[in-house]
Input
Amino acid sequence: MSTEEPKINPQTAELIAELALEIARRQQTTWDSLDSKAWQVFGSGSIILGLGIAGRVGGLALAIGLAAYAMVAIGSLGCLRLRGFETLPHTVDMWAHYWFRARADVNNTVITALSEAEATNAAHIENKGTALRIAFVALAFETAALALAAAF
Output
């Protein structure tokens, strides 16, 4: 029975590093997309509320519209406030610690860092999605309340 540690296969390490980097890029794209959508939902809610006020909608419909707009704002800002997207260490840090190491060792470090970041980022993306869904449902309620009030 051998007690030797398995050696890193350089080609396998490079392939895994490329795949890990692609996953991180996709997560970053999703993160940015959710932020853009949150701004769009918030802006739409602001416009719809402004149109309702300009249309002299009042009473219960305006109160419902304002409450729904508050939820739009809470959901949108909740999505936008989530920060902490994890990536690789900065280049300066990597250079300071790994300039003398073999390429396979550096790939191993990249894979380890990205795999740790992936789980954290996935949880943050899920939370951003939940906050955005809340904002979107609230936007639908706001639109419906003010549209019904304007129709009558």
Q: What stands out?
A: The helical segments are 10-54, 59-81, 91-98, 103-151. Residues 92 and 98 are 10 Å apart (CA to CA). The chain has one domain: 39-151.
